[in-house]
């Protein structure tokens, strides 16, 4: 039976080893830079699609779990707990399988790999390349259809701080799969719906020229490679490999008009599987090879520059005598061989093409192409399916005309519209718009269900007249923006703001205010001093932010500003009301501007006035009240546009019936109530009410209805319908929309028409992709919509859009911010050079004396508080010792360094001294061989021996028999533990032989009776055991770095007199000791008092101590609420009576332990309160304006009638009628 288990265990261990290698390889491929997978088989794409679909399902499930039930932070904590549990289970499994031969793969330190592979050649002599699991023949990744180049790219150590690959990833990120497009399912490549015959394929393929048969590489091409790619092979190795490849290619017969060869054809090069892979990768990167799929096999051909240039010249069709021209180009650009990357970025290059199709009903081909037209230097054509692409709709697409001859990895981005012109009424023209990133996999894109064929061919509809149809295509070619390399400042002149969490609303507001130059200048002129701190001064924080937005080259952080608001980290992840934030900010600035040269700026810019009026209908009485406003809240629900919202804002309300107005001496009267504007401000801020309270769900919900706003807003329309009689009619209230497109950190130029359309909201209607099954159109909601509009009055624009330069900025602010920039640059430089250095932390006896008994009690030292050195990796360790001599004044010959080691019980102790051979090595090499955890730091203990005169002497020779021990002294009377020293003992000696020396170190009498304890570990529980004084150190398993605690032998009296009479009990107390900060639940931000408790205290122990501290006689009237470590707020639910067994249970929040509890003093005992239901009732008295809140407690089985009866005892009703 044991043999069977052993055989099974070995088989399982082998399986786990292989599984871990595969998982590690997949993890590395995910972590590193993605690559185009056009050469991969459909199997891999299908695998990706399944993964995406599965992930989407998981995310949807998580979203449904979190919606309205738990906070994001709690969900995050739960996920972290699951992760920790999985890690623990894996570690346990590894331990169990270790005896069967399972060896877990060690983690590879990326810094080590990056720094140690400078000489990697195609021979692959170094460990990292040779052991790369991605290139193993046994690995299943190859079976997924990945080419050698794909595997080599994934396996290469791509440093993200160096040059990025010029290979785009649309094929990976946007595969042709219906599920991938989500709700935009109608935008499909035409070829996905075709049953293409072999002949059709031949018609569509473009011929390619015959490339040369010799690959020529230059040293310049090699030197221009990113540094991480040059680590794959030296120039000499690459040159030798290319010569071998040329020799093989010259022997291989070239067929099919091109020098195609399969990756397996290079087996005779004797480079090995990995060598071939890296060779192909480098040649592809240097544009000497193109990867393609031929006959289902991944193949390569030599690059030929001649076939990469599109043919120039404009193809024009016949010119009819009437109607739209067959090819009408508006603002056409001359065709060049430029690519997307070198297109101008100032404005998109736009052209409109009109295609006249005669004899439309007699078209017999399944698909029909237009003439070629050019936009942005690229060739395009329109593709239609006159009878539908396997559906009863006209199918129409925009196609890249020369896609077959473009270079590998090509991509281009275009916004375009396709239309079928209505020849009776232009307004009835059928037009649809979309956008797409075209690539080799998706070279055509458009609408499978453009319009029903029944409508198209109906002569009475006007789309086909005299058997002629006109098709229009408007194409705008835009540069593809790479988020990681995009330079907002370079491309637009502006920079963005970093999002702290949920601060996009704040970023929008700040960018809007910044782009009001008059406001920015006023902020700069606000008085601040060099002693102010931005985190405590809103004016200085805003000045700093605006300065950086104006002069920085990269995106700007808002942390200083949010700190000046009084927000903590969690507040940044909470959605705040943008109108409230705007008002608070303006009020703060307005207050700070008082008494300065910019006093009144806020009012001058943003303040307007309106008049609230109530006018009686039947008597001559009118009541008016003038009010000011800084912004206006406009209704979105039920309103089509801004004008409709203003109409609703000034809508007259009739007060009649039970709602009559009490008009002083006239009594109750029918009246009209409304609002009219006295004046509008120069800068009009409109807050759109996109959120409303949902009573059923008890939460705020967003209104995504379509809501339009014009570029020009005329508030004098219809003879000033919004203005009061008192308004100054000489002021022209014509406003222009003020806005830019900011996506937090990224700023892009955007077509105004498109930008407005995107922000209107509403729904977009899409036909089904298979209309024959269901003719119901599919609608999806556009969730991106505007919530704040800023308009500037035309007559004030010259004043508001003024020049702001450095002379408007206080000198101390310029100096401060330039210094910050220099410090930031120093940090960046420090970080960029970090891989060249090693941090060495040196602990000494002085550190142990300083820390033990004060900051720490267990182990020996906190390495974060010892002296650290930043040393170049190539520096010999002996030279480092000279640096130590300068720092500590200890000559080199008197220094001996010990390496720290982390033991299996999670303690950290000096393990062994460095050997002379190790000290002769470089610092970087020493760190690598001594640090199995691949930590970037090297931690050492400096042993210094002192002579009788307290001067350094040479350390004694250490033999295998010598053991270095550290000693701590415990005083039960003072409850004090301190470090007293260290010395060597012989492993064969006994503790009883060192008692006299210990007494001398402690200052005791030489014959004092003392007890010795070995401090073994402290996690998860304390283990400190008595040391047998008559047993040898070897038999007690004492070794280098062990800690011995000793004290006077306790007497019976001392055991009763002292709380913790022996060292183990004191260490147990310290381990479980917990200082708890108590706060009143009514004042959750203010600390009230602290208590020293034990994590093992029961619920009753804790409430007893709190009640005693507060002077409450009945501890059951104390109710505690735990702390949320993520939000830094009380949790929503208090701790039920005796629901927590121990104090630790009250403090733990997922994987974090808090030291805060909130308390309440109840008027009734908590067990009794838990049987009752507490309700908050808002009572509206018809004779008073204020609302009174009443708290009512009733048994949980009570009815609404019971609530009303209880309410009657608390309030006085005007009549017998009561409504709830």
Automatic annotation (TrEMBL):
Q: Where in the cell is it found?
A: Chromosome, Centromere, Kinetochore; Cytoplasm, Cytoskeleton, Spindle
Q: Which residues form the MATH domain?
A: 350-475
Protein species of origin: Actinidia rufa
Q: What is this protein called?
A: ubiquitinyl hydrolase 1
EC code: 3.4.19.12
* UniProtKB keywords: Cell cycle, Cell division, Centromere, Chromosome, Cytoplasm, Cytoskeleton, Hydrolase, Kinetochore, Microtubule, Mitosis, Protease, Thiol protease, Ubl conjugation pathway
What does the entry list under GO cellular component? Answer: cytoplasm; nucleus; outer kinetochore; spindle microtubule
- Gene3D superfamilies on file: Apoptosis, Tumor Necrosis Factor Receptor Associated Protein 2, Chain A, Cysteine proteinases, Phosphatidylinositol 3-kinase Catalytic Subunit, Chain A, domain 1
> Is Manganese one of the keywords UniProt gives this record?
no
Looking at the record, the residues that make up the USP domain are: 495-794
What PROSITE patterns has UniProt attached to this entry?
MATH, USP_1, USP_3
| Top EC class of this enzyme | hydrolase
Reactions catalysed according to its record: Thiol-dependent hydrolysis of ester, thioester, amide, peptide and isopeptide bonds formed by the C-terminal Gly of ubiquitin (a 76-residue protein attached to proteins as an intracellular targeting signal)
Q: Describe the family membership recorded for this protein in Swiss-Prot or TrEMBL.
A: Belongs to the SKA3 family.
Q: Which GO terms describe its molecular function?
A: cysteine-type deubiquitinase activity
- Keyword Cytoplasm on this protein? yes
One Pfam family cited in the UniProt record for this chain: MATH_2
Query: InterPro entries under this entry?
Result: MATH/TRAF_dom, Papain-like_cys_pep_sf, Peptidase_C19_UCH, SKA3, TRAF-like, USP, USP7_ICP0-binding_dom, USP_C
Query: What are the GO BP annotations of this UniProt entry?
Result: cell division; chromosome segregation; jasmonic acid mediated signaling pathway; maintenance of root meristem identity; mitotic cell cycle; protein deubiquitination; proteolysis; regulation of protein stability
């Amino acid at each position: 039976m044991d043999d069977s288990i052993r055989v099974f265990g070995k088989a399982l261990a082998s399986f786990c080893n292989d599984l871990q290698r595969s998982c590690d390889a997949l993890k590395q491929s995910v972590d590193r830079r993605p690559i185009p997978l056009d050469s991969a088989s459909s199997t891999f794409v299908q695998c990706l699609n399944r993964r995406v679909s599965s992930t989407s399902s998981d995310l949807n499930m998580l979203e449904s779990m979190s919606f309205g039930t738990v906070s994001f932070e709690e969900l995050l904590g739960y996920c972290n707990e699951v992760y920790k549990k999985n890690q623990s289970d894996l570690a346990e499994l590894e331990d169990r399988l270790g005896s069967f031969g399972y060896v877990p793969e060690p983690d590879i330190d990326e810094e080590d790999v990056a720094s140690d592979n400078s000489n990697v050649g195609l021979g692959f002599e170094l460990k990292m390349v040779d052991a790369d699991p991605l290139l193993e023949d046994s690995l299943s990744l190859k079976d997924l259809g990945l080419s050698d180049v794909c595997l080599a790219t994934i396996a290469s150590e791509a440093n993200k701080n160096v040059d990025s690959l010029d290979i785009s990833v649309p094929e990976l990120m946007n595969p042709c799969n219906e599920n991938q497009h989500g709700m935009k399912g109608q935008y499909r490549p035409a070829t996905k719906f075709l049953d293409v015959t072999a002949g059709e394929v031949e018609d569509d393929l473009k011929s390619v020229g015959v490339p040369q048969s010799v690959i020529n590489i230059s040293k310049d091409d090699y030197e221009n490679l990113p540094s991480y790619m040059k680590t794959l092979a030296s120039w000499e190795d690459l040159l030798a490999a290319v010569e071998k490849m040329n020799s093989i290619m010259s022997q291989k017969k070239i067929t099919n008009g091109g020098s195609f060869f399969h990756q397996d054809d290079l087996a005779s090069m004797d480079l090995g599987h990995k060598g071939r892979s890296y060779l192909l990768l480098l040649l592809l990167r240097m544009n000497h090879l193109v990867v393609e799929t031929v006959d289902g096999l991944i193949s390569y051909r030599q690059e030929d520059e001649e076939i990469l240039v599109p043919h120039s010249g404009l193809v024009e069709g016949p010119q009819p005598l009437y109607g739209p021209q067959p090819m009408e180009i508006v603002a056409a650009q001359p065709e060049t061989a430029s690519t997307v990357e070198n297109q101008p970025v100032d404005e998109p290059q736009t052209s409109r093409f009109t295609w006249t199709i005669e004899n439309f009903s007699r078209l017999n081909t399944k698909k029909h192409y237009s003439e070629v037209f050019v936009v942005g230097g690229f060739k395009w054509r329109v593709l239609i399916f006159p009878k539908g692409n396997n559906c009863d709709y006209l199918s129409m697409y925009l196609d890249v005309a020369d896609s077959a001859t473009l270079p590998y990895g090509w991509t281009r981005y275009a916004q375009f519209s396709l239309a079928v012109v209505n020849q009776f009424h232009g307004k009835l023209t059928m037009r649809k718009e979309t956008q797409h990133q075209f690539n080799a996999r998706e070279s055509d894109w458009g609408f499978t269900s453009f319009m029903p064929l029944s409508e198209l061919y109906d002569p009475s509809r006007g789309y086909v007249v005299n058997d002629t149809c006109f098709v229009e295509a408007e194409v705008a070619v835009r540069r593809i923006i790479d988020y990681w390399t995009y330079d907002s400042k370079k491309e637009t002149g502006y920079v963005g703001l970093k999002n702290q969490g949920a601060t996009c609303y704040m970023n929008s507001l700040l960018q809007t205010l910044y782009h009001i130059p008059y406001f920015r200048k006023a902020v700069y002129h606000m008085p601040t001093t060099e002693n102010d701190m931005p985190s405590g001064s809103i004016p200085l924080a805003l000045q700093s932010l605006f300065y950086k937005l104006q002069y920085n080259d990269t995106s700007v952080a808002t942390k200083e500003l949010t700190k000046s608001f009084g927000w903590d980290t969690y507040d940044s992840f909470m959605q705040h009301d943008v109108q409230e934030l705007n008002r608070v900010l303006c009020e703060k600035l307005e207050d700070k501007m008082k008494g300065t040269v910019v006093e009144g700026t806020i009012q001058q810019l943003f303040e307007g006035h309106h008049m609230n009026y109530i006018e009686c209908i039947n008597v001559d009485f009118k009541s008016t009240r003038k009010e000011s406003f800084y912004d206006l809240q406009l209704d979105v629900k039920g309103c089509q546009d801004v004008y409709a919202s203003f109409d609703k804002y000034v809508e007259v309300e009739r007060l009649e019936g039970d709602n009559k107005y009490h008009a002083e001496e006239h009594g109750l009267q029918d009246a009209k109530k409304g609002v009219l504007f006295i004046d509008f401000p120069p800068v009009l801020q409109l807050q759109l009410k996109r959120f409303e309270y949902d009573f059923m769900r008890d939460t705020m919900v967003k209104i995504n209805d379509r809501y339009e706003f014009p570029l020009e807003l005329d508030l004098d329309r219809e003879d000033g319908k919004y203005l009061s009689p008192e308004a100054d009619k000489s002021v022209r209230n014509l406003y222009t929309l003020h806005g830019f497109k900011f996506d937090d950190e990224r700023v892009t130029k955007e077509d105004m028409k498109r930008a407005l359309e995107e922000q209107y909201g509403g729904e977009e209607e899409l036909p089904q992709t298979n209309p024959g099954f269901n003719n119901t159109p599919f609608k999806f909601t556009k969730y991106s919509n505007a919530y704040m509009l800023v308009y500037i009055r035309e007559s004030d624009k010259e004043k508001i859009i003024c020049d702001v330069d450095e002379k408007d900025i206080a000198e101390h602010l310029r100096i401060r911010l330039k210094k910050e920039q220099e410090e930031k640059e120093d940090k960046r430089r420090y970080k960029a050079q970090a891989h060249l250095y090693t941090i060495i932390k040196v602990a000494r006896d002085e550190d142990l004396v300083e820390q033990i008994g004060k900051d720490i009690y267990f182990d020996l030292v906190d390495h974060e508080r010892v002296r650290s050195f930043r040393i170049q990796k190539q520096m010999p360790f002996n030279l480092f010792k000279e640096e130590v001599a300068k720092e500590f004044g200890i000559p080199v010959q008197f220094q001996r360094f010990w390496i720290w080691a982390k033991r299996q019980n999670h303690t950290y102790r000096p393990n062994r001294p460095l050997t002379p051979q190790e000290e002769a090595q470089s610092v970087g090499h020493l760190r690598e061989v001594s640090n199995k955890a691949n930590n970037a730091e090297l931690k050492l203990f400096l042993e210094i021996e002192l002579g009788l005169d307290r001067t350094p002497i040479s350390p004694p020779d250490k033999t295998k028999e010598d053991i270095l021990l550290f000693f701590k002294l415990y005083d039960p009377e003072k409850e004090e533990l301190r470090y007293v020293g260290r010395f060597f003992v012989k492993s064969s000696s006994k503790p009883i032989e060192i008692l006299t020396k210990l007494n001398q170190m402690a200052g005791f009498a030489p014959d004092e009776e003392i007890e010795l304890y070995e401090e073994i570990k402290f996690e998860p529980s304390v283990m400190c055991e008595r040391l047998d004084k008559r047993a040898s150190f070897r038999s007690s398993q004492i070794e280098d770095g062990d800690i011995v605690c000793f004290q006077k032998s306790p007497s019976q009296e001392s055991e009763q007199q002292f709380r913790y009479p022996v060292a183990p009990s004191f260490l147990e107390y310290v381990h479980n000791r917990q200082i708890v900060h108590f706060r009143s639940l009514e004042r959750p931000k203010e600390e009230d008092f602290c208590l020293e408790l034990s994590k093992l205290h029961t619920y009753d122990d804790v409430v007893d101590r709190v009640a005693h501290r507060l002077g409450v006689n009945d501890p059951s009237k104390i109710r505690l609420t735990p702390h949320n470590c993520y939000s830094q707020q009380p949790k929503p639910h208090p701790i039920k009576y005796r629901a927590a067994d121990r104090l630790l249970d009250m403090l733990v929040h997922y994987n974090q332990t808090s030291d805060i509890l909130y308390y309440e003093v109840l008027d009734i005992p908590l067990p009794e309160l838990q049987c009752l239901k507490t309700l908050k009732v808002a009572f509206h008295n018809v004779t008073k304006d204020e609302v009174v809140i009443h708290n009512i407690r009733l048994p949980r089985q009570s009815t609404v009638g019971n609530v009303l009866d209880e309410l009657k005892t608390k309030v006085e009703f005007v009549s017998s009628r009561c409504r709830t």
